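user: can you give me the structure for this one chain? tokens are fine.
assistant: on it. calling the predictor now.
[tool input]
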Amino acid sequence: MSTIKLGDEVRFLNENLEGVVTSINGNTAGVTIEDDFEIPVPISQLVKVTSTQTNIENDKDKSTVNKDSSINQGIYIAFDRLNEVLLDLKLYNSDSEEILFAFYEEKNQEIFLKISGRLTMNEMVDLGRYDLEKFSIWPQFHFQIIRANKQRDKILTPINQSITFNAKEFHGSFKHVFFLGKQAYIFKLNEEKLKTIDIKKLQEKDFSEKQNIQITFDKKPDAVVDIHIEKLVNNNSLLSPSEMIATQMNAFIKSLEMAHVHKMKSIIFIHGVGNHFLKNKIKNYLSLQKQIVSSFNDADMLKFGGGATEVFLN
């Protein structure tokens, strides 16, 4: 049996499901399926999907790189795997004679400039290193790029792109990268386009309803905080699954921070059981907050039925 690793495409032995391995904890793998939901599965119950077709496509990519360089024209970012978990992020220009770029990270609604500079044609720059095991708490990435050519019939549109990575799509982007000469996670930065408005949803939306989160974050939170989506947003029918998760995680993180500020000994978060995706996301986050979190475990099983986590604060 082949070893299961992060990023592998796998299928379930006992269910008609497939996904990508996005976390590994001992003998259990977190497999992300459609809609970016991660399911904990014993590794013994998974089988690696063969990648014959992928290898054929990669060979085609390699063979056509030198034949027609125009097919690779663009501005790309790629995550080069240094080992099983550490990635090196690179920016590559095969679009214009020269570009000016600025790369930002956004954390907790604060934006930080990481690096800026210029790249000539077919030049590459390192932007930083990222840990796959901390994928769930990666920041949002922002890119601002101005493109220039000496002779052109029009001025090229600046690129202003924000990226929040979806686990399944991220791991699905692993393929041969022409400018690295090997496998990596690759994404092309595109010109900013106007978003299409869904007229039907707009007509159905009740603008009299408040869509804001109902938890107030500037005061001491309750000892028990319910982060079910219906408790946070008055009308959640227009939210996508990823937007719901983001809203719940935001409420959880802000409540945790305020509990620490107000020197609470402990706090309980009700998140439900579901498919364990939100529960695992919360526990992964807590495991990295050793400065403020002393320990955490399942709250009273008789009272919450495994659908709540109790956090003890330093």
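assistant: here you go. The chain has three domains: 9-48, 68-189, 199-313. Residues 68-189 form a domain with the Immunoglobulin-like fold (CATH 2.60.40.1600).
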